[in-house]
Structures are given as structure tokens and as C-alpha cells.
Amino acid sequence: xxxxxxxxxxxxxxxxxxxxxxxxxxxxxxxxxxxxxxxxxxxxxxxxxxxxxxxxxxxxxxxxxxxxxxxxxxxxxxxxxxxxxxxxxxxxxxxxxxxxxxxxxxxxxxxxxxxxxxxxxxxxxxxxxxxxxxxxxxxxxxxxxxxxxxxxxxxxxxxxxxxxxxxxxxxxxxxxxxxxxxxxxxxxxxxxxxxxxxxxxxxxxxxxxxxxxxxxxxxxxxxxxxxxxxxxxxx
Length: 235
Prior knowledge:
By secondary structure, the protein is an alpha/beta fold. It has one domain. It has helices spanning about 1-25, 35-50, 85-90, 100-110, 125-135, 160-165, 215-230; strands at about 50-55, 70, 90-95, 115-120, 140-145, 170-180, 180-185, 190-195, 200-205. Helix 5 packs across helix 6. It is globular and about 70 Å long.
């Protein structure tokens, strides 16, 4: 069966080639920023095909309410920065993982006017926390995905609780709900809204976190905030 032998050999060659390409791609830690402009424009264009709205009953998007610590789940990130006006994103910093994927995300959100703060609970956490405090002192909101960058899905980390306790600024839960979407086969089921679907940004009630928290206090707030954010998020 020479034909079958040739096909098997070709398949192995292509698989090896794809493996080599993936390996080379993963070694690229940072692309030129212009590479992400098509993604930025695609998100903006896709937003025009949708019925987008904002529900903000407590007026937290008003500058008079700044600054605060915003939390949203990782799988709602795609349209999150696109839902705000430029004057809001210009006063927003986002804590983003120092990983390679985090670098890609940093480049994209910066096109929307958001300032990246590189760090997470697992890597460079202390430096990211101190930088976040400095941004809040300058009047910036700090946005955190408490279940990123690796999950588990819909788990609440202690980072935003500690930051809010340190600065005395409230935590504001936010979510983006899609009426129709594709879910990727990733750890968080990352969501991509389908064209002509309804997209809603929902801003919850600000939550004050007291200072000098014990480990037990942090755990109680962690569970409470997780449940609050889940109630806002349509699954």
C-alpha cells in the first residue's frame, strides 16, 4: 500500500512542521503593537452589529464615583473594555498576568486606552499590588479578573479584597452578558458574542471592605463577592 504509506509519512511531516511552528510562535513574547490593531477594529466593528446597553443603577461609571476596584470574570473580557467611553478607559488600569498571553491582552486593552498593570496573585503579585495602590491614589480605577489567569473558573482570589482593604476604596462587581455567544473550549469557556446578539454591561452595587482583615475575614469576603458577581452574570 504505497499510497497509504505516503499519506502516513506526509501526516507525520505536517504534524512535525506544525509542532515546530507552534514552538517558534510560543517563543515570541511580544509582537509589534500594530499586529493587534485588526483585533481591536474587529471588536469595535462587531459591537456596531449588536444591541449594547449599560445598567448602572448606582452611578458608578460617573467620574464622581472614582476610584474603585472593579472585578469581572475572565470569560467576559472580550467586550469589557469596549463597553466604556474613552474618558472612562483613560482613567482605568487593569491588572494583567505577566505571562506571554497576558502580554497579548495588555497590547489589546491598551488600544482601548486602558493602562496595563502586569502581575497576578501567582506572579509578581506584590509589585502589581503596590502599583495598583499608586494608580488608585492617582484617581484611577483598577480592574481585576479574580479568576484569571488560570482559574478555576468563577473562583474569587483575595487580590481585589486586599487592595480594597488597603486603599479604603470600594469593590464594584461588573459583568458583560451576551444573549447569544460561542464558548471556547478553554478553562473558563471564554465567550465570543455572535453578531446581532444583545450585549449588556451590568454594574453592581459598590461594596466597602474594612481594613485590617484576618484570614477568616478575607475568606468570608471572598465567598460573598464570588456569589455577588455570579448573581450578576448570566451563565
